[in-house]
Amino acid sequence: MILLTRKADFSSAHFYWHDAWTEAENVRVFGKCANRQGHGHNYTLEVTVAGSVDPTSGFVVDLKQLKDILEREVVSVYDHRHLNYEVPEFATTIPTTENIAIVIGKTLEESWTAEFGAAGARLIGIHVQETDRNGFDLVIGAANSERDATVSASFASVTD
Ligand SMILES: [Zn+2]
């Protein structure tokens, strides 16, 4: 089995805000990230797939096809957008990087079998790097049926 990882980049704005909380509660929990004018990040997405090498092509997956899917499903939707206002999934879900990883994973899974076939390479992981210090991994198909994002940040801080 080979693991293959493809990267893509997007730059987006967001802010953190929970509607059921007062402004003071939002500021207490989210700090500077609660500023509703938003702020931006240059995100790096890494998508990891696992599969066997096709004996004819020598590929695990067609990289051009994978590149096109990431462009269509993620980059064209997220890049130079305000996530809270312009990406429907984040109208009600706070666009933390944990949630960005979960939404991207769900989106890619929905079209995965149609793109690559049931016997093709499997989608196994999503990594979203938010800053130099904060990166988040979504493990797809983990034993826990909940889609848990795991935080690999060395200095987790909502203000970074
Ligand atoms: Zn941020």
Account of the protein in words:
- The chain is α+β, with helices and mostly antiparallel strands and 160 residues long.
- It has one domain (2-13, 41-151): 6-pyruvoyl tetrahydropterin synthase/QueD (Tetrahydropterin Synthase, Chain A, 2-Layer Sandwich).
- The chain contains four helices and six strands; from the N terminus they run βαβαβααβββ.
- It has helices spanning 23-30, 63-78, 83-86, 97-116, and strands at residues 2-14, 39-51, 81-82, 122-129, 135-139, 149-151.
- It has a six-stranded mixed β-sheet with strand order 3-1-2-4-5-6.
- A hairpin with a 5-residue loop joins β4 and β5 (135-139).
- The longest helix has 20 residues, at 97-116.
- The model is unreliable at 153-160 (pLDDT under 50).
- Bound molecules: zinc ion.
The structure class reads: alpha+beta
* Share in helix: 25-40%
**What's the architecture, going by CATH?**
2-Layer Sandwich
CATH superfamily: 6-pyruvoyl tetrahydropterin synthase/QueD
CATH topology: Tetrahydropterin Synthase, Chain A
Number of strands: 6
**From the alpha-carbon coordinates, what is the Rg to the nearest angstrom?**
17 Å
Order of helices and strands: EHEHEHHEEE
Proportion of residues in extended strands: 25-35%
Whole-number tally of structural domains: 1
Could you report the average pLDDT, rounded to the nearest whole number?
Answer: 91
Largest sheet strand order:
3-1-2-4-5-6
**Helix count, per DSSP?**
4
Highest CATH level, the class: Alpha Beta
Q: Which small-molecule ligands are present, each listed once?
A: zinc ion
Could you describe the largest sheet, including whether it forms a barrel? 6 strands, mixed
Instruction: Give the low-pLDDT segments.
Output: 153-160
